[in-house]
């Protein structure tokens, strides 16, 4: 940009941001990286810049694909469902503007019966219900992290409807308030009534009550969790990699220690054994920051 601007303070400022010395790096981080200012933001701030449009396009990185878990089972319907949380909030740049998620914002505006071009990727781990329907499942997720579990329960429900005996599974689901944002609440209640799954909700924002997350609900239900584990249950975790996932690991290891009298190292070794035998599976992602 500086190369396509007339001489003056604005050009000197941009040149200073592009330097490789420590001071330039510090200024770049403070003014560009931390507030997530884009090339377009800078161009709008510098109307004197005559950067050719072709060069502007060359500078733009390719958009990364957005991956979403399928939240339906082909045994229930030929239609494919996704459960997507729309990302929207104040932009980090601090100018009062609103940032909207590129893909989630686009999907929210697609009209009913509209067309979306997608591809299906085979998961790198066997994050799917056990082939044997007699094997219990322990599922832990929060918000849209319950997406794959809806499909899991649909599959088990369809088997049950055909007369196939199924194991009752445990679903630990986090939300802010079960009255307002518990996704698929009616479906989950029906599955619970039919014996497909037992639902444990963890609400984090109910006034007058301490914050409660899925790991707290899991640890508080140690008896049921341990009983399922003795029946070779498979544990599935879907959600935030930096907050929820470590909490669930710690809670499950704590259940093991309580039930066996083992120490910290033994709990970690037990969890590692579950992983190696594909009995502890995670579909997790890093926390999405507002750009």
Short description:
By secondary structure, the chain is α/β, with parallel strands linked by helices.
Mean of residue pLDDT?
Answer: 90
- Give helix % range: 25-40%
SSE order in H/E notation?
Answer: HHHHEEHEHEHEHHEHHE
Low-confidence segments: 287-291
Number of helices: 11
Derived from helix and strand composition plus strand pairing, the structural class reads alpha/beta
Task: Write down the CATH class of the largest domain.
Answer: Alpha Beta
Q: What percentage of the residues does DSSP assign to strands (E)? A: 5-15%
Number of structural domains: 2
Radius of gyration from the CA trace? Answer: 24 Å
Please name the fourth-level CATH homologous superfamily of the largest domain.
Answer: Nucleotide-binding domain of ferredoxin-NADP reductase (FNR) module
CATH domain fold name of the largest domain? Rossmann fold
What summary fits the major beta sheet? 5 strands, parallel
Terminal CA distance reads: 21 Å
What is the correct CATH architecture of the largest domain? 3-Layer(aba) Sandwich
Number of strands: 7
Strand order of the largest sheet: 5-4-3-6-7
Outline, from the CA principal axes?
A: elongated
